[in-house]
Every structure is written in C-alpha cells, then in structure tokens.
Specification:
The protein has 14 helices and 15 strands. It has 412 residues and is of the alpha/beta class.
Length: 412
C-alpha cells in the first residue's frame, strides 16, 4: 500500500514581527524586523525578539496566571490554526486529535522565577508555587493546549533543541500515516526570552548579538555578524491525510514531500557540515527529488561566525552546482532565533511563495562573508521568480541534532 499523502491545511503563528501568516509574510517582504531591547534579570538591557499577540483572545486572566508563556503561545497558535483551517473541534472525535509540539527549553523560566521569589523570603519554600510542577514538566505546552481545546488524543512535546519545530511536523506526519490520529496540530514554540539562563549561557560562549540598532542585530552571512538574537514565538499547523482534507473540501497550503533527522555525534555545540549535508540528501531521497528540483532553501543560520560558515559548507556540498533555480534565504535575520519555534516559523514564512512566486530575502547583509557566498542566495530585497514548487527547510540544534523538511506545491 502507498503511504497516505499528508497535507498542511491551516497555519497559526505569533512571531516578533507578526501575529498572523499574512502579517508575518508582509513584513518579510517589506524588510520589517521584530527585534527590540528588554530588561533581563541580572543582565540588564538585552536584544530580543518579543511577541505582542493578544493572549486574552483564547484564555482568561486566571488561566494565564496559572499557566506558562509557552502554553499561552501554543494555545494562541493552535486556535489560530484551527480558525484558519475552518475546522470545528465539535465535528472531530476528540480522541483522534493529536498535538505534537516541538520545544527547546522549558521549565527554566518557572524555576528561575520561583527561586527569585523565595529569595525575598529567606528561601522559605512555603512561598514556592504549588503550580510549579505542572508548569515545568516537559509536556507542558502540549498539555495546556489539550486542556484549552478539550482534546483527549495524544498531546506531548518533542525535545529536539532548535530542530524541534521541524520535528513537530515530521512526527505528526508519521502519526497520521500510522493511523494513530486523524487530525494533528503540530509545530514548535519557544519562551526563551523569559529565562536569564539562556542569555547568560550564550553570553558565556560569546554568542550573543550586539548592535546599536536592534532591527539590524540579527545578520546571518554578514562579515560583521557577532551572534544570536534570542527570541520567543510559535507556529502550529493543522495536518491531515489528503483523503480526509479532500472529503471536507479543505484549502491545502502544501504537501509534506520528505524529511530526515540525523545526529552529528561529534560535539555538544559545534555543527558538523558533513552530517548536515547527509541529512539534506536523505530528505531529498525520501522526497524523490534531485537538488536541482528544490526552489527555496531556508537556512538555519543563526549569525554565529563559525556556525554560518559550516552550514554554508553543507549547502554548497549539496546545491553548489547545477541548481540554477534554487534560491536560498534566511528568516532569522528578521525575527532572531526562536529556538524550538524556528523551523515551524521559518517554513511558514516561505509557504506563501507558492502563490506569490517571490522569495523573501535575508536582510542586514551589508558585507557578505566570502565563506558564506552561495549561488542563489537572496539578499536584502525580495526576488520574484518564475517557479516555486518545492521548499526545503533546515533546522539544526545543540548536541548535534539535524532535521530537514521538504514541502511541495499541492497537485491533486
């Protein structure tokens, strides 16, 4: 039997520069970044990507007080995706809805806050919140979403560092094909900016971006890049088997064409370009595509000096020759690094290319690093193109996890 075709039928997101796909895409095409300065405990003013969505649209003040930022972002994105796809949960068997959310860091925020709070009371733990445990369990984001929606199917998070956004979609595709669920909400979320620990950690690695103009701080591939802009955000999709989507006359954004996940097994932090290239090639093989058949490659590049070079080495190894119609871009230059949400948000930013035949650029590249010069790299201005039928999305993470996801234009 041929495996079921899996299609994307809804998108819900919040990013530092937009709270809907239409707004996000418009800002990617008009050069609007979403980086600002925030005050980080113990560290003072820091650059960050902050989301400004309406949290009260789908939650009460009490729910926000009891829950977490990651849960709130997930609920907002899930509800927006459902509204976009036009599905009422009342028409679906609740136990056949799966929720699969990629998440990088979780629990740090709540624990840091509780320790800080009891420090004001001589560390007396009677002031420790009794909500702490459900706030810090790894499945929190998916669990809060399930509670909000009232779904009773599987709901859990996928820990895959900064590859987690892609992994949410990959895992959901697999569960749909296995028949474990009939409808999936999936993608990735991040609450990174609310923990000082992640800022301190990147600062200790000399990997935090610095720039006098916040909007210009995230600058992948630029010779003057100097690190990561930490950001929050989220993007969840509705995925369905094609036959189910067709039966209800759903609008289809794209079809999942291929994917692959592998591991570097070489370093805690430093990426391995050979393993990254192997991941991309394996995803292409699963999709039945040659490199020249890919029209957009969205890079993971985080604007660290060595990381960008190594990813470009991997991309050059796969797409360096004979790919005249392959265009390469980066979304982090607009929104910073949204960690567990990165892969899901970056895919969403490119999905409208199937309709408008335009590749959004990498911005803030004033002086291209020669070691990052790639054929097809789109810099600073959108590029109209003749054809977009396929998009390849790379997301890589610490401890050497690599993920590549390919989507194609839906053709009945």
């Amino acid at each position: 039997m041929q495996p079921s075709r899996i299609v994307i039928t809804g998108v819900g997101l919040t990013a530092p520069n937009g709270n809907s796909l239409a707004e996000f895409r418009r800002h990617l095409l008009t050069g609007v970044a979403g980086i600002e300065r925030i005050d980080v405990r113990y560290m003072g003013s820091q650059l960050a990507g902050v989301c400004h969505y309406d949290a009260l649209r789908y939650q009460t003040r009490k729910e926000l007080r009891v829950g977490t930022r990651a849960g709130s972002i997930s609920i907002y994105c899930a509800r927006e995706a459902l509204a976009d796809t036009g599905v009422s949960l009342e028409t679906l068997p609740k136990d056949r809805v799966g929720i699969y959310i990629g998440c990088t860091e979780h629990g740090n925020v709540e624990t840091e806050n509780e320790v800080y709070n009891i420090s004001k009371f001589n560390y007396d733990t009677k002031f420790w919140s009794h909500y702490h445990n459900p706030r810090t369990v790894a499945n929190n984001a998916a669990g809060e979403t399930s509670l909000n929606l009232g779904t009773t199917g599987p709901a859990y998070t996928i820990g895959a560092a900064c590859a987690a956004g892609n992994m949410g979609l990959i895992h959901a595709s697999q569960m749909l094909r296995l028949g474990e669920v009939d409808f999936a909400l999936c993608g990735g979320v991040s609450e990174s900016i609310h923990t000082f620990g992640i800022f301190a950690g990147f600062k200790s690695q000399n990997a935090l971006a610095m720039h006098a103009e916040p909007a210009r701080a995230s600058r992948p591939f630029d010779r003057a890049r100097n690190g990561i802009v930490i950001s929050e955000g989220g993007c969840l999709y509705t995925l369905e088997r094609l036959e189910d989507a067709r039966a209800r006359g759903a609008r289809i954004y794209a079809e999942i064409a291929g994917y692959h996940v592998n591991s570097d097994a070489s370093d805690y932090v430093l990426p391995n370009p050979q393993r990254q290239a192997e991941c991309v090639r394996a995803a292409l093989a699963r999709a039945g595509l040659a490199p020249a058949g890919i029209h957009i490659v969205n890079t993971h590049a985080t604007a660290t000096p060595l990381g960008d070079i190594q990813e470009c080495e991997a991309i050059r190894a796969v797409f360096g020759e004979g790919c005249p119609d392959t265009h390469i871009n980066n979304t982090k230059s607009f929104i910073g690094h949204t960690m567990g949400a990165a892969g899901a948000l970056e895919l969403a930013g490119n999905l409208p290319s199937f309709d408008d035949l335009t590749v959004h650029p990498t911005i803030n590249v004033d002086d291209l690093d020669p070691q990052c010069a790639l054929p097809g790299l789109v810099l600073n201005q959108p590029r109209p193109v003749a054809r977009v039928d396929t998009i390849l999305n790379n997301s890589f993470g610490m401890l050497g996890i690599n993920s590549t996801l390919i989507v194609r234009r839906f053709v009945p």
